[in-house]
Amino acid sequence: MAELYNMAGHLIRRLNQISVAVFTDHMAAAGIDLTQVQFAALSAIASRPGMTQAELAGAIAYDVTTLGGVVDRLASKGNIRRDISPRDRRARVLFITPDGDHLLARARPVVRALQDDILGGLDAEERAQLLALLRKTTDAGNSKSRAPLRTP
């Protein structure tokens, strides 16, 4: 088992489990009904109003098919709206609603605060080093992902 416990994939999976648990707990404590992916989607739509669902998937590195359910839930809760694209009538463009803006404004400080809990046990310098290394390795492996990050 010692070998498993020192493998990057195992440790990354465990850190993801911790990240999801911490995010979920903090959101529940703040009375906010939002998942990590919903937060990422709202953030991206707020920063680039009018993007398509495919562009959103690329912006947050999420599978476009699975993202459909996320977009449906955000729309059904009144946090985003979907309009017909003026460039392609088959596509929908996404916009954050006033309710979505309010939700995002409530969630952002909570999300910023919980980052320290995700990286518990590390001092500020170690956190900066880990984040730099995570960015470096995810950038290097982006093309290997089934849902690569695509920045405009």
CATH class: Mainly Alpha
Order of helices and strands: HHHEHHEEHH
Number of helices: 7
Count all strands and give the number: 3
Tell me the name of the CATH homologous superfamily.
Winged helix-like DNA-binding domain superfamily/Winged helix DNA-binding domain
Shape annotation: globular
In the residues, how many domains can be counted?
1
State the major sheet: 3 strands, antiparallel
Fraction in beta strands: 5-15%
Q: What is Rg?
A: 17 Å
- List low-confidence stretches: none
Query: Under the CATH scheme, which architecture would be assigned?
Result: Orthogonal Bundle
Distance between the termini: 43 Å
Domain HTH marR-type: 1-139
Protein name: Transcriptional regulator, MarR family
GO biological process, one term: response to stress
GO molecular function: DNA-binding transcription factor activity
